Amino acid sequence: MINTLDAEEIDFILRHEYCHALRNDVARKVIILVFSCLNWFNPLYFLLKENLSAWIEIACDEAVTENFDERQRKKYASLIIKSLELENTAQLSHFYCVYYSETSIKNYKRRILEVLRGKKNVAAYGKVVAISLAVISLVCSNIVAKEADIPVNMFFSNQAVIFDANDFEIVSLPAEE
Fold first, then answer.
1. What is the pTM for the complete model shown?
2. Cα separation of 58 and 124, whole Å?
């Protein structure tokens, strides 16, 4: 990948990844993964999860492009497209690596539009909305799971048969000769 990029594009990528390191985004993505495990049954959380990942990337893009002029913003936006193309080429050529990547083209489009607009304070808004939705989602999903637990247990408990130990007779088998 590095052979296809110029010095300015490499600088943009390094700034972007450095921003992730400064903001401790790996820990945030691990928390998203843990919440995904806890909310495996909650379709609302999966909508939230997609937005959380996009907000992390948009906030990082915003920090990197904060002092960019229009030309640099356009080049940064084209770099997002170029990296997506290179990523797809790498997958087609069976080059394997471990990375956390968005899979939604919608999120890439959203990132590019935000970079080109130069929109500010997406990160603060995203954090407030994300935390609020995460708390509401966890509380509501746990209430629903708890309420569903009782009928499920009652359904299976009606089918269970319990024996008393005194109802059984101990039979010894004859010894083999």
1. 0.62
2. 11
